[in-house]
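Justification of computing resources. Each target in the renewal requires a structure prediction run like the one illustrated here; the chain below, 578 residues long, is used simply to show the kind of job we budget for.
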Amino acid sequence: MSVEEGFVRVAAVSDIAPGKAIAVRVEDRSVALFNHQDQIYATDNQCPHMGYPLIRGRTRNGVLQCDWHGWSYDMAGGGCFTGGCDDLDTFPVEVEGDDIYVKVAGVASKRTGAHYLLLKEGLLSRDNWVLSKAVAIMLAQGVSEDETLRLIVNHLGKHIATEQDANGSWRLAQIANGISVARRLPVEDRLIPLMMAAKGASGRAGDRPERQALPPHATWETLADWVRMFSMDRDWEGVEKCLITARTLGQNDDQILPLAFECVLKPHFIGFGFNIPHLVRLAQVLEEFGWDDSENLVCNLVAKMLGRHRGTPDGVRREAIEAYRNLVADLNDISEPDGSAEFDEDGFVLALLSGDLGTVFGAVTDALQSGVHVNRIADAMVVTGADRMSRTPASYNPGWWDLGAEMQMGSAIRGVAKYGGYALAAKAVYHAAWQFYGDRWLNIPNRPLAEVTLNQHASEASGDASADRKAIVDAIESIQINDVGPMVGRYLAAGHPKEELLDDIALALLKHDTGWDILDTLRVVYDESDNCRDHPAAHQLIVGIARFTTGARRSNNSESATRTAKRFAQRQTAVDLY
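Resulting structure tokens:
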């Protein structure tokens, strides 16, 4: 092809019969050429809706209609006649004799900037395809991941404030976990967890009058006391008013989340342990995006979590509330130990799984009073949950999500220590222990962690890491739950890299509908594989998530929207996709 003032010769007029169209490749793009009403038109061959090749469309009176979903465009100007669609890119055409020249280089895309509207449409509609398409285009067009995520976080704040109660914290957790998992994966594989994060933020975002601070006279100490009172009374609006006022004081931002942790760790919140990891996730979002983008979300969601309806506790929960109230009275002034204290981990685990509330809480008290650091207790709880997950019978109800909650609660202890302080983290240990007590119905034999080794697999280990990972993924996708655990054990016993295996497991999980339900636990496995890397039973984290992924999966596949969106952003047409 020759080049003349930016125009490239792409075809001959005789190549295109009147009323017909052909596709040519120019500047790495598929360009559609139409011979319509004695004039040659050039447009992007990719329909801006879902990427169908427009050369298969219908032309009438200067209007091009896509043959897949019927969306229509002005052939000359590219304007879209169908609501909610991006405009179509069109290109200058010159005809010299029988030669057709098209200029693509340097022509501004009409879709530039439209991705912001597309993301807004997806966030309001909760449509997986629109969300995937918006995020994929934004990333492909060089919009920073940070900017995209800030738009999502801002929308979540509006959505929760107007449409959600305290259970909006589950949406927040989905965003935080989707972002975290995405950043663990190669760039080319991040779209699915980022789409999940966007889906967590999506929904209606109605109008709400701006909440005004109280008239200036209250001190931080007074506001903090009111927050505690309103939380006890389940008055979330009172809590929100106090938090908004505290922000206007300008010097108390660092005290707001510690106060929130203090409140959710009160005795009456026994049985609402999910508040703790969700508050940790909110603290992480605030840490990354700052108050300017997170204030509405933090003040409203924290208020709703602290003032949530808690119902009348049953007999067992009342017993736990009273026991906890008596046990934590001395923890307010506990200081962080140096980590040198002896810890009978196996004895602690056996007590934790005893099914007796006094024994469970007694083991926590003994460990804390002996100077055992909460991080060591968190290690024991996380690895115990993973070991139980690796051995739970794959029966009618294996309790996957309950075991995942054990790991999440153990891991959250570290977050409470970071954002709330050591004394509050010590209290969080009791709430995590309650999760294990609540799971006493699970039919999993107890065993000391010291017995958990890879020695049984050492003689069967393979030397081909890549082949072993493929076999494990095949076992997951064909739901061979009784085989996948030993396969992972053999892989790890051979000393193969666990990071690459975990990425493969994550991708096998995320492209199916079960990925939504396991995202929380997957994020914990990523985090705790680092935190617990020196624990002799840490390998059970990988074994457990492999079995969870296998046992919980369904046949419904949610990969197609994100896969198609990624290729759409790369300007491939639907012919390339299918």
